[in-house]
Amino acid sequence: MNPPAAVVVLVVAFAGGVTAGWFLLPRARRRPHQLPRGTRRILLPFTGMSISRRSFDAAVRLARAEDATIMPAYLARVPRQLPLDAPLPAQCLQAMPLLEAIEQRARTQGVAVDTRIIRGRTYRDALRRMLDSEPVDRVIVSATANSRKGLSAEDLEWMLEKVPAEVLILRPDPEDRRKLTAEGVEGHF
Amino acid sequence: MVPAAKQRGDPAEQRPRAGRGHYTIFLGMAAGVGKTYRMLLEAHAEQEAGRDVVIGLLETHGREDTAALAEGLPVVPQRRVTYRGTDLTDMDLPAILRRRPELALVDELAHSNAPGLEHEKRYEDIEDLLDAGIDVLSTVNIQHLESLNDQVAELSGTRVRETVPDSVLGRADEVVLIDLSPEALLTRLRAGKIYKHERVEAALNGFFRIENLAALREIALRQVAEEVESKRLVTDVVGTREDLAADLPQAVGERLLALVEPYPGAQRLVRRAWRSSQRLGAQLDLLWVAPPGREPDPEQDRQLQALRQLASVLGANLIVEPGDDIPDTVARVARERGTTYILMGRSRPARGPARLRVPLPQRLMEALPGVDVRIVADRSLRHEKAP
Prior knowledge:
Chain A is α/β, with parallel strands linked by helices. In chain A, 43% of the residues lie in helices and 20% in strands. Chain A folds into 2 domains: 1-30; 41-184, HUPs (Rossmann fold).
């Protein structure tokens, strides 16, 4: 091969390589936060203005081990006087910053997050509706010593009997009062 | 307290009234905060300043101190109306108009009138009085405002049937917030100053829960703050009170459009968009420009359903528009819906010839001059590229 032909071949090869890279490189990048099909899901239902750090940490540990997605789900109660599909802005005001705080914290620990706000006449009703529409692999809940807050003992019993997923109930530790609240949101929200 | 009469100067100057009367609304977060009481105090101050004041309609709800404060103020007697064999009483609008006072007190403007009267609602009666040049003092609780009805019903579990358009506040010359801390209101309730003792327990367990009152107070404070801001803006733009109500939505109305896709990250974008819409008091629309002729896969379908649920619980509208050209479709929807603000997430890295195209935010800014475009960042990535 004479020198000019070799130069032409080299230039063409180089241009071809650059073009291929230009076309192909971004394909290798996974779309941010896209759930791969068939991914495992860990539901983390909660009520009120905070979530127990124990259940959050447990969910993160499991999600990392199983390459699963955490689904933090705020359970909202619809007053009897309102239709079930009524907007709930007051509860959303409470839920939104907390969901943001949970998502930010989980994402910094390398765990994928897919949040929800679920409505129902009761917390149990909300949970049932959620599980009817979206199957999950595991549910992590924190039992509470205060029966007036969150899911009751009967709700937990119902979950163990009826939920078609592995249920992990964390026993409350009276000494451990660590919670994740809306104050954990990074930046202005 | 400086009475309004003194603030406005010599009462004699008020006598030759041309045009519409002056309208003051006392707004409260709940029954018992002292709206009617404050209205009566104001009326006495006006009377002492030499003005002709009458009570057009007063609801004392059996409260002795309110009834005592009303003494000394002339009352236009209520009229009797018979409806389906039942005797009802209501404000006598024609009698007040005939009496032509300088100032009329009309309590509880959200009240529905007895059937067969001039107007369905009391706030419409007030409009007649104002049109006749009569100044009006009136009262309303925050839960009667139409736009807040859902929110208050959710908080209190009680759906208020007697609502008034928000523009009623917009038409008032003054909105006076009667503020009281929830604790102070509960003390008044327990002392029997709001309801009779036998109703107190039920009230404490129902509407008058402290978290309800705190939330209602916040709503009331925000509402008045927004009213002040709206009036300031509209006065700057329009200049006259008559045009104020009509021009209010155009002058200050914001509408947000968030561009979403059916994948988990969209929930974060919607959260941020909704918070912004709350702060601006704006409607929120969510738009997914779907690739035409392509059915969503099961995962997309699930995410779309989740977005629908989220939009519904937030009171937002989810719009799914098929379209090949995203900027064109977004621009069309934005124009149709009167969008003032577009929020979007970070675009995926372009590949191939798409890299040569003008980026979406820029194309939107060109297609929609005057519309803000905001790219919502993922806060959890803030420290990833820190130096």
